[in-house]
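Colleagues,

For the teaching module next term, I've prepared a clean inverse folding example: a structure given as tokens, and then the sequence designed for it. I'd like students to try predicting residues themselves before seeing the answer, so please don't circulate the second half yet.
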């Protein structure tokens, strides 16, 4: 299994109240790049998990345990939402779907 695809794990910042303007501001998201193994979810798994065959689902495996909070994952600039996150031994597995 090759961990050869560079992905970004992104955490949105918390909203901050700006007393000068009176607006709530969202700081820039923080991201971390890691190498991962990415495979397609497959027709059977897509149907079983989401009851839909047309979902762009992927399984992302990280070599290390990743316990920091994240909101979404960027793969080649495309945003993927996290449906399931699982720690297996010293590795992390994500099941993700493309954001429309």
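(Answer key — instructors only)
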């Amino acid at each position: 299994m090759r961990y050869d695809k560079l992905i970004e794990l992104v955490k949105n910042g918390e909203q901050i109240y700006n007393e000068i303007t009176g607006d709530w501001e969202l700081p820039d998201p923080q991201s971390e790049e890691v190498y991962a193994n990415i495979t397609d979810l497959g027709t059977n798994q897509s149907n079983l998990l989401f009851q839909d065959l047309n979902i762009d689902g992927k399984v992302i495996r990280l070599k290390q345990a990743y316990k920091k909070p994240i909101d979404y994952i960027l793969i080649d600039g495309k945003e993927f939402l996290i449906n399931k996150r699982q720690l297996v031994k010293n590795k992390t597995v994500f099941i993700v779907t493309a954001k429309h």
